[in-house]
Amino acid sequence: MRIPVEVRPDFIEKVARRTDPLGAVEELVWNSLDADATEVRVDLEFDDLGGVAAVVVSDNGQGIPASSVETAFKGMGGSWKRGAAGTESGRQLHGRHGYGRFRVLALGSRASWTSVSDGPGGRTKVLIRFQDGDSDFDVDDRGQADTENTGTIVRLTGAAQRKDRLTLDSMKGELTGRLAMYLSKYPTAKVWWRGALLDPSEVIQHQYEEQLALGSGSEGGPLLRIVEWKTKPPRRELLVCDAVGVHRITLRAGIQAPDFDFTAYLLWDKFAGLTDHDMLEGEFEQSDSFLGRAVEAARARLRSYFRERERDRAKELIAKWIEEGVYPYSGEPSVPVDVAEREAFDSVAVLVSRHLQGSRLARRTQMVLLREALRRQPHAMPKVLDELFELSGTQRERLEDLVDRTPLANLIAANAQAVDRIDFLGMLRSLLFEPLSRAAMREVDQLHRMLEKELWVFGDAYASAVSEVGLTEALERAMGRLEGVPRQQVRRADGRAGRLDLMLSAVSGAGQSKRHLVVELKRPSVTLAEKEVAQVRSYAYTVSRDERYSHDDQTKWDFWLVGNAIDDVVRWMIESHGEGGGLIQNDGRISIRVVTWGEILDSCEEQLKKQQERLNYASSHARSTAYAERAHADADVVQLLAVRGNDSA
């Protein structure tokens, strides 16, 4: 019997994805698991020259009933899995679109399915063949089967562009990563890769998970699970999965995380109906789609997570070095210059830690030499260490940045954070007060974005912030949901909704005392007057009257109205209050201030004055531009700095 394929050849070509052989193997494994297989084996057969002659995927699943072959292979869509709740044993299903059988073309030009299944008439065997370029599936219904087990064997032979990549050692680890969540959820399902069992638990170094919030209207957002591996995967991936962990869409992680080998999983029941083919159809390109917003939130959290892990790893390494007796310092530093030297050494040592090898004495010697090089010839360090260790591009850039941005005599006393802050203040002052850049600056996508990364401007106590958040979401983030109190929109006294420019949060006293700072930002060209003060007062009033706030004695709220200039009426309000610092209202729990950027920048610069004098460092247009390119490229401020530079000239 021959079954005609009722889809156009160009569509088959589109879903075949010929350059992704491992993806095709994965699709066949999912088909086996969806058939309730408890054992799936992937094997390669080789020709006389060592090339891959055949790819074989076999399982002990339920098989393909002869009665359903025509329905299953005739066209696209209509897969039986779309209406099924799960497998007979209760496992989650993967496929839903009926595209998977054409993925085999990435593994060979000829495919055969030999399948044994149980049916009303007893156990039957069926053979299905397909050849690239043919328009039909060839079905050989062989009738009764005398084998003991049901299951399917898929065999792929013939030419395929990249199937020899399956011989790479990294393939086992990559397939393990893609199946890890499912295999962990269903331990009775076993998958073998070329005779080796895929066992995620053997290769997992560290795990972390966190539920992401996607903003208002997205309660119960996706779960982000981060798995760090003991062995290096061929690439870092962000795998979009359903709530169980069944892999739906493969994306690159899209972040920089030097020296971390990981896979990230984004799990949500809303992803259950998606496949990689949705990517082909442009689903992800819709930035406002739930998938697009979820991926954006996941990547943002991945960046902050690995910054935290980098700090944790540095502490762990240093503690280990001290315990082993290889760390070249003893005791605690007693003077600021020693503190700075120790910080600089730790940064460099952690950066090249993978290259510090050998016996305890050898590593101790390497540490001492590294310390002396830092003290005596810091300018030569990047070149010397690169020649010794063949550093990555990121490692070289960080070392060169540490050396080049301060005079050599003051390198040991350099504090990278202080230099960055000095550059940022110089940049921000120019952008806010130079006439051309001040007129061109956009509030939301430039000023807000910059300040989200520079919370220290408002105080070092603030560790987190959100921007452009509604009053409803702001109160829920700050207070949580009260039991028995239904969710309702928070409105200002005049009935209008409100959006906060920036909400910063700080926690002290082991989580007992919380403080939130709401910053209302105005364009540099706006003079702060009664209208702007009334807006901030309406936010403060709304917070003070919300029932969640009335139950919380530990949380303080500060509201700042910030701009370049203040009119006389508002100046009079500040002077009448008499406490200074721009304060116009304070009841002990809620305070309101009106402050200028000049006052904020002056205060920040005063705090950095001693460090700046010690560093003998002065920011410049070139340095502030370089900092903007490195730290604030997403805010698109480099062009503004160019405008400012032209204006100054």
Largest sheet: 9 strands, mixed
The helical percent reads: 25-40%
Count up the helices: 21
In spatial order, strands of the major sheet run 1-6-5-4-7-3-2-8-9
Shape: globular
Task: Extract low-pLDDT stretches.
Answer: 406-414, 481-489
Task: Please specify the SSE layout and strand pairing.
Blueprint lengths: L1 E3 L4 H8 L4 H14 L4 E8 L5 E8 L9 H6 L35 E10 L2 E10 L4 E9 L6 E7 L12 H16 L4 E4 L2 E2 L2 H4 E8 L11 E7 L7 E5 L5 E6 L9 E6 L8 H5 L9 H35 L11 H16 L8 H17 L4 H9 L3 H12 L11 H18 L1 H6 L2 H10 L11 E7 H9 L19 E10 L4 E9 L5 E2 L1 H16 L1 H4 L4 E9 L1 E2 L1 H10 L5 E4 L3 E7 H19 L5 H11 L6 H11 L1
Parallel strand pairs: 2-8, 12-14, 17-19, 18-20, 19-22
Antiparallel strand pairs: 1-6, 2-3, 3-7, 4-5, 4-7, 5-6, 8-9, 10-11, 11-14, 12-13, 15-16, 16-17, 21-22
Tell me about this structure.
Mean pLDDT is 79; it is low at 406-414 and 481-489. The radius of gyration is 31 Å and the shape is globular. The protein is an alpha+beta fold and 649 residues long. The protein contains 21 helices and 22 strands. The longest helix has 35 residues, at 290-324.
Name a few traits of the molecule:
single chain; 649 residues; alpha+beta; nine-stranded mixed beta sheet; 21 helices; 22 strands; 39% helix
Q: What would a concise description of this structure say?
A:
With 649 residues, the chain is an alpha+beta fold.
